[in-house]
Amino acid sequence: MAQPTDVDGLCWRVEQCKADDKKRQDLLEELLSQLKVATEELRKVIRDLEVEATARRGLQQQNKELASKLTGKLYVLIIIDADGYLFQRMNEGERGGRYIADKLVATVTQLVEGLGKDLEQCDVVVETYANTEGLGQALVARGQVRCVEELRAFYTGFVCRQRMFGHVDVGRGKENADQRIRERVSFHTGIWQCKQVFLARVAMARTTQRSWANMSRLEK
Has this prediction a pTM greater than 0.70? Predict the structure, then answer.
């Protein structure tokens, strides 16, 4: 027959086993939580890499198309950091994009004509760069668009309206847009047909309305 001291010892050992089991359970839950976080981070990295690869392929194709369109044709280039230089009518989807494209061409044409007769017959090339998903989420939070897809529709209308317009989704990270813009400026300033480059960049927090006359002009 077990003595009371033996029973007490067994109870203590049982409690120790329970405590050990709880520690193991807590450890497993912690490891599982860390695994979920790591998996989500990996997914984000993979998505960013896919966006990066898509953007580069898009730029390569854009270069080819632009070269074929501009063979021997003079042009001026407008590069827009669209994460900060916000357009009006973004909440109107494709219709808003088409309207802004037409308005931009008219405004830039008028601006270029004031720079000299040698630029009057130039084509107008516009390239916008933005983290479309991140920008869309920020605009949704501010009530400026209803959803991210509305912003994507805006850019669809924008680039389809004018044959020399293009939009590049650079993914997360402000440095992605900055690097891409630097690359494009370097690329175009090396082409003799490119007579002038303008940069449109402004902090998003300032305002959603800016005059195109405030664009930075880069001398070639």
Answer: no
